[in-house]
Here is the input.
Amino acid sequence: MQLDPDQMGDVIKRLRRAEGQIRGVISMLEDGRDCADVVTQLAAVSRALDRAGFKIVSTGLRQCVLEAAETGEPAVDLDRLEKLFLALA
Here is the structure.
């Protein structure tokens, strides 16, 4: 299934923000910043990436359900969906 590019705008924004945060972490390390500050920033990056991943999965699930309603086919492969969620855990 292809994801609708129009619905991926929020995900792209999240990923660009995470990209900037990662650059910030690299700069912090190069500047010898305090360990606690670096870890705090890494945690923020991790949360941003997790949220982007879950948004992709939830958008895909929504698309599957809508397509199933239109075509009468099964909505989603539950095993595949479980693997996607667990991959983010």
